[in-house]
Amino acid sequence: MPRFEPKNPDYRKVATATFDRQPAMRTLGISIARIEPGEVDLSMPYSLDWTQQNGFVHAGIITAGLDSACGIAAFTLMPSGSDILTVEFKTNLLAPAKGERFSFRAHVVKPGRTLTVCEARAFAETNGVESLIATMTGTLMALAPRGQDPRTHLA
Amino acid sequence: MPRFEPKNPDYRKVATATFDRQPAMRTLGISIARIEPGEVDLSMPYSLDWTQQNGFVHAGIITAGLDSACGIAAFTLMPSGSDILTVEFKTNLLAPAKGERFSFRAHVVKPGRTLTVCEARAFAETNGVESLIATMTGTLMALAPRGQDPRTHLA
Amino acid sequence: MPRFEPKNPDYRKVATATFDRQPAMRTLGISIARIEPGEVDLSMPYSLDWTQQNGFVHAGIITAGLDSACGIAAFTLMPSGSDILTVEFKTNLLAPAKGERFSFRAHVVKPGRTLTVCEARAFAETNGVESLIATMTGTLMALAPRGQDPRTHLA
Amino acid sequence: MPRFEPKNPDYRKVATATFDRQPAMRTLGISIARIEPGEVDLSMPYSLDWTQQNGFVHAGIITAGLDSACGIAAFTLMPSGSDILTVEFKTNLLAPAKGERFSFRAHVVKPGRTLTVCEARAFAETNGVESLIATMTGTLMALAPRGQDPRTHLA
User: Fold this and answer.
1) CA A95, A99, A102, A107 torsion: positive or negative?
2) Which chains reach chain A with 3 or more Cβ–Cβ distances below 8 angstroms?
3) Of C106, C97, C95, whose CA–CA distance to C140 is shortest?
4) How far is CA D72 from CA C51, C64, C105, in A?
5) What band does A150 get if pLDDT is binned at 50, 70 and 90?
6) How close, in Å, is residue C130 to chain A by CA atoms?
7) CB neighbours of B56 closer than 8 A, spacing ≥ 6?
8) What is the pLDDT of residues A76-129, one digit of tens each?
9) d(CA B94, CA B132)
10) Which residue in chain C has the smallest CA separation from B108?
11) Which alpha helices (DSSP H) does C1-155 contain, by range?
12) Residue C27: is its pLDDT beyond 90?
């Protein structure tokens, strides 16, 4: 995995603040476990509230954790004043999402001025043992936050 | 769009019951708006609880709606006694998820004994006007529910 | 499917010329069957040269046709002087690629100044009967052709 | 990366023979550079025949190499007598495909009785220096070769 040089020396503070402004992360109980330039680990406890018909966490919720991990990982490498939006992602579900906790670990594969490509993996933890349950590849887009309506990012 | 013949005459009842056994759908306030053989529309109200840093609904939550729509659409064509798991999906986010309500509309592209491929679209509704905000292509897998551990579906 | 207004009145000429400058299309025997604003159909004859171990056309070759169809469809809506690169795509193989001819039909789902999202379908034709064999969703990026190294599109 | 135990002691011979029965690989000049249980490296020389309008190798041809690498990697872990088909894949193009040679390196992420998930990376080599140009995540399906029509794998 390549090592990256952050363009914004305050990357940790800014990325954490952006994460903290996401009500969805708070609602899901997701927190930042580790943050480095181009790398982020998130952590989420199991909750019955997010399960599908078999008691496994819903694939969309696992995707929410993977996508936020990718977004924050990409965001750590962006210049000061940027905002970020997800362009697209692809998730493979490898095993049912059952466990006491879940980790979402993302890293930047290719940083870019406009587009950044990230990969992420989701792990379930049961009795201290982790197993891989899902993968994501995602494309993120940097946006200037002021004077530009994010609705127009594809317009 | 092709028309499909359901293998299970009770498809509507069984698919609705499977949907109702998903706590995540209840938590997100998602309900079935329409269900036909191979086609499902789901509906979700906007809630600040599911938003990211700009007040748009989080891409993972939009994905949860799209994935459930695909799963139920595929499920309507499966024989009695089947269970279903998502193998993988890909989501393109076309516009920020802002609106009063969201619709997730899925249809089966290719049904199969083992694998079924679905496409879905997410729409945001504001003042009665709908706009396309996301697309999904997903692969679903049919499982026999009894005597088979779903954990082994990839094993 | 939405109707699009081309920004470049010469879109047909320019898109056709760009297609004609692709040696890979010539090598594969792929030609333009139809071109409209935001929509393109390509056609390819079967050749044993492109097959995998079962005599079906290789998934990568089917993908080449789908990707070119998406690229040209997106290109028809771009302003004069643009160049285009593929950011990413996802292909689902629905049935083995066996037939006398193959059609690749793409349309723009969401045009954009920077990014355009397209969908495409591949069909195999045997004895005048067509069947769906693959789908693609792809993201394309507009580039200014002069004074900008396409290698930097992600840099 | 996990280490895998091949089910078929002749995996190398069988996987190589399957690769050799792919006319498309011969046409593209792709050869096996390395083969281990669950891991395959393929190699392809640059040829103008496979380029798009800017002299870069066409994304579909890069995808053909990535897909074959994934298929052979998955195939090394399958029991004797299996055949294999690609269900779906997703490719991210990270940099233009220009170079003297290209490498396609795949490994199995999750082997399965029915479905196997692989990841692959494409590299371009220029003057002995390699750079990452594309990634793939793909889902492959094991098929019994006799008494089962591969056309029915999704039926």
Assistant:
1) negative
2) B, C, D
3) C106
4) 15, 20, 29
5) very low
6) 29
7) A150, B96, B97, B98
8) 999 999 999 999 999 999 999 999 999 999 999 999 999 999 999 999 999 999
9) 7
10) C94
11) 11-20, 23-28, 59-75
12) yes
SS3 A52: coil
Segment B16-27 mean pLDDT: 96
CA distances, D148 to each of B27, B108, D143, D154 (Å) = 44, 24, 8, 12
Chain C partners of B92 at a C-beta cutoff of 8 Å? Answer: 109-110, 117, 137, 139
Distance CA B62, CA D128 (A): 45
Distance CA B13, CA B76 (A): 9
Residues 6+ apart with CB under 8 A from D54: C83, C150, D96
Q: Using the Cα atoms of residue A29, residue A12, residue A63 and residue A129 in order, give the sign of their dihedral.
A: negative
- DSSP per-residue codes, chain B: ------SSTTHHHHHHHHHHT-HHHHHHT-EEEEEETTEEEEEEE--GGGB-TTSSBPHHHHHHHHHHHHHHHHHTTSPTT-EEEEEEEEEEE-S---SSEEEEEEEEEE--SSEEEEEEEEEEEETTEEEEEEEEEEEEEEE-SSSS-GGGGG-
Would you state the pLDDT for residue D36?
A: 97
CA-nearest of B125, B126, B127, B110 to B73 is B110
Using CA atoms, how far apart are residues A71 and A15, in angstroms rounded to an integer? 9
Residue A147 pLDDT > 80: no
10-residue mean pLDDT series, chain D (155 residues): 85 95 97 98 98 96 98 95 95 98 98 97 97 98 66 43
B114 at the C interface (CB within 8 A)?
Answer: no
C-alpha to C-alpha distance for B138 and C92, rounded to whole angstroms? 9
**pLDDT of the residue at A2:** 63
pLDDT at residue A145 is higher than 90: no
- Two tokens, residue C93: 């193989």
Q: Which residues 29-68 in chain D show a CB within 8 A of chain C?
A: 48-54, 56-61, 63-68
Q: For position B152, what pLDDT does the model report? A: 43
Interchain contact D87–C (C-beta under 8 A): yes
How far, in Å, CA of C9 to CA of C32, rounded? Answer: 19
Query: What ipTM does this complex have?
Result: 0.92
Asked if A25 and B22 touch (Cβ cutoff 8 Å), the reply is no
For the purposes of burial, counting CB atoms within 10 Å of the CB of B132, is it exposed (0-12), middle (13-18) or buried (19 or more)? middle
Q: What is the mean pLDDT of residues A28-48?
A: 98
* CA atoms of C22 and C17, how far apart (whole Å): 9
Closest CA to C75 of C45, C41, C101, C37: C37
Our CA dihedral for B131, B135, B140, B146, rounded to 10 degrees, sits at: -40
Lowest-confidence segment of B33-47, B133-147, C66-80 by average pLDDT: B133-147
Q: In D, which residues are within 8 Å of B113 by CB distance?
A: 152, 154-155
